[in-house]
Amino acid sequence: MSSNLPKVAWIGLGIMGSPMSENLIKAGYDVTGHTLEQAKVDRLVAAGGRGAASVAEAVRDADVVVTMVPASPQVEAVAYGPDGILENAKAGALLIDMSSITPQTSVDLAGNAKAKGIRVLDAPVSGGEAGAIEAVLSIMVGGEQADFDAARPLLEALGRTVVRCGPHGSGQTVKAANQLIVAVNIQACAEAVVFLEKSGVDLGAALDVLAGGLAGSTVLARKRDNFLKRDFAPGFRIDLHHKDMGIVTEAARDVGAALPVGAVVAQLVASLRAQGDGGLDHSALLRSVERLSGSHV
C-alpha cells in the first residue's frame, strides 16, 4: 500500500459499493469497509481490504469516509447518532456521500458535519453496475472547491467524468436531473421496442440502426440486451429509480419547474413497483408497456 494515499472507510457494499471499493483497492488505497451483510464484508476482505464490525470502527482512523447507501434515511442512519460517522470520524476527515439522496439532506449533512470539523462532498454517480465495475462512472459533486480538489484523485479511480457542479446539494440536484433523463429515455426505448415487435420488425436490426442515429443513447447501448432478452436482473432496481423520481419531482416542485413528461414516467415507475416488479432492473419499464399493449407478462 502506498503510504501517501489517504486511508479510506467505505460504508455500504451493495451492487455499486462493492465494485467501487474494490477499484480503490486496485488503485492502491487502504480500504476498511462496513455493511449490513457479512458476506459483502468478506468479499471486500478477499479483494484486499479490511472489514469492520460497525460504522464507528470503520471510520475511526480514516482520512476519507465514503458512503454508498440506498437513500436519505440510510445516509442519516450511518451519519448521525452515537455510533455514526460524525461522532466517530476524526476532525479534518473528508466525508464523500456517493448515495443518491435529496439535495436538502446533503445540505443538512454538510452543515452538521462542519460543526464537528468534518468536511463533506455530495458525489452521486451515474453509470450503473457496469460503470461501477469498469470505473467509468460519471460523478457529479457538490461542495467546496478545495475539498473537491482533495478528493479528485480518489474519485478519478472510480469514474471517468468527475465534475464539481456547485455548492453542497448541487451534486444531488444534477443526479436528480440525470435520473429524470434516464427514466424518460428508458420509457421511450421500451415503447419503441413494443411498437417494433408488434409491427413484425427484426428488433435486433432495428436497435442497431437506431443506435447509429440521433435516437442513439447510452441507455439504448447499455440496455439493448435487456430489451432483446427480457433480462431484467437488476443493475439498477426499479425500487431505487422510484425513490429517485420522488426526489426529482419534489425538488422540481420546490423550485417551480414543471416536469410534465417526468411526472407521467414517475407514475409508470410507481405502477411497475406496485405490480411487484420493484426488484427488477429499470429496463423492466418494458413490462409496463407490454401490459398496456395487451401482452401477457
Walk me through this protein's architecture.
Helix content is about 55%, strand content about 15%. The chain contains 14 helices and nine strands. With about 300 residues, it is of the alpha/beta class. The strands form two sheets. Strands 3-2-1-4-5-6 form a six-stranded parallel β-sheet, with helices on both faces. A three-stranded mixed β-sheet has the order 7-8-9. Strand 1 (about 10), helix 1 and strand 2 form a beta-alpha-beta unit.
Write a concise keyword list for the protein shown above.
297 residues, alpha/beta, 6-stranded parallel β-sheet, 3-stranded mixed β-sheet, 9 strands, 54% helix, 13% strand
Briefly say what this structure is.
The protein has helices spanning 17-26, 38-46, 55-59, 72-79, 85-88, 103-114, 128-134, 145-156, 170-198, 203-211, 218-229, 238-255, 260-277, 285-292; strands at residues 8-11, 31-34, 50-51, 64-67, 94-97, 119-122, 125-126, 137-142, 159-166. The protein is of the alpha/beta class and 297 residues long.
